[in-house]
Amino acid sequence: MKKRLAQKVSFLFPLAVVLVACISCNLFIVEPGPEPGPGPEPGTVLFFDDFEDGSDPAWAPTPGWTTWGGRYYLKDMEHKWGYSYIVTGKDWRDYIVEADIDVGYGSSGAGLVLRAQEDLNNMVIVRGRYGEIRWSVVVNGETAVTSNPITPGFFAESQHVRVEVSGSTYKLFIEGLLRSTFTDSRFSNGMPGVTSFDIYGYPDLSPSFDNFKVTAQ
Asked: What is the greatest pairwise CA distance in the chain?
């Protein structure tokens, strides 16, 4: 009897060691991390800049952006579109972005950037010049989609432009009137910002932005 009991104990002891080791290992692997924080409540202002004291440090502009007279503009004579993003917004999902935009004169243009990704090569854009506006989707640095022109478009003075971003739907309002609805499902989050094309380089002639605001929805 004692011999059989000793055999059982000697047989079970290694199993017990393995079991304890496995339990310890599993407890280490499945240890839960911190719970993700809740998203912002609808109506929460995520960002605001009136450019009265220069531009907020959260802006990440391509070369040439500056402030003048409480407005943000691109002083760039390279004749290409420039961009500026809110770098803290990389995880923002559904939001309302709005600004007072003056598209300037001649062939100059301006618009809003929506859901730009961290690589800055993927984004949705709504932009235009005097008389027309277009939606664009940029994928891997190339324009993948360009909408038909929206007319009448911007006009040659300051106007309040608002875009509501929700899911795959983008709604453009100018001076409170719904002007266009655009659908694209490529991006579910990303940075908002502004874009401009300036052929003059002078603050009184160039496209400019004021009262830029992002609100959760």
From this structure: 104
Three-class SS string for the chain? CHHHHHHHHHHHHHHHHHHHHHHHHHHHHCCCCCCCCCCCCCCCEEEEECCECECCCCEEECCCEEEECCEEEECCCCCCEEEEEEHHHCCCCCEEEEEEEECCCCCCEEEEEEEECCCCCCEEEEEEEECEEEEEEEECCEEEEECCCECCCECCCCEEEEEEEECCEEEEEECCEEEEEEECCCCCCCEEEEEEECCCCCCCCCCEEEEEEEEEC
Checking 149-152 for CB contacts under 8 A at 24+ apart, the result is 150/179, 150/180
Q: Which tokens go with 5?
A: 């009991």
pLDDT digits (tens, 9 = 90+) for 149-195: 999 889 878 999 999 999 999 999 999 999 999 999 999 999 999 99
Contact partners, residue 103, CB within 8 Å, separation at least 6: 109, 110, 128, 129, 130, 154, 155, 156, 207
pTM of the model: 0.81
24-69: per-residue pLDDT in tens? 443 334 344 445 556 789 999 999 999 999 999 999 999 999 999 9
